[in-house]
Design goal:
four-stranded antiparallel beta sheet; 38% strand
Length: 151
């Protein structure tokens, strides 16, 4: 009888712990992904122009032109499962930490109908780093936004 109670409590605690871990992993991916989308969106809206990708094209590198006395030129790209930003004169650095990996990074440069300012569609997939392949440590989400330059 005691062993049945101990087994039941162990199973319940294991389920609660697994659920808690899954929630923490999801929150980490969600918060980092949203932070990266926000930072890229702000950089695009403050940029003076787009160097890459060219108008009407898509690519894995976004190169923004800075504004005189304002924003600095910036390049975003994927390197070893990290979303890297390189700002003029600074060392390239990842926007994500080691708890998540980035894939499927894509930037599309287009014009909205009736507009002269380009719009950039940003897309990437953020996945929790899960070398043990345990289900409670797996979470994946696609992030996307479209931002028009304020020029």
């Amino acid at each position: 009888m005691v062993s049945i109670i101990v087994l039941t409590v162990s199973v319940l605690l294991s389920g609660v712990l697994s659920s808690r871990i899954k929630t923490q992993v999801a929150m980490e991916v969600e918060s980092q992904g949203q932070r990266m989308i926000d930072q890229i969106s702000q950089s695009i809206s403050e940029a003076n122009g787009i160097s890459a990708p060219s108008a009407g094209l898509s690519g894995q590198i976004l190169s923004l032109q800075g504004t005189p006395g304002g924003s600095v030129p910036a390049t975003y790209q994927l390197e070893s499962s990290n979303l890297i930003i390189e700002e003029s004169g600074q060392t390239p650095r990842p926007l994500n930490n080691t708890k998540i990996v980035i894939s499927n990074l894509n930037f599309t440069n287009s014009l909205n109908p009736g507009s002269t300012a380009p719009s950039i569609r940003v897309f990437f997939t953020a996945t929790s780093y899960n070398p043990s392949n345990r289900n409670e440590y797996f979470y994946q989400k696609n992030f996307q936004t479209t931002v028009t330059l304020d020029i």
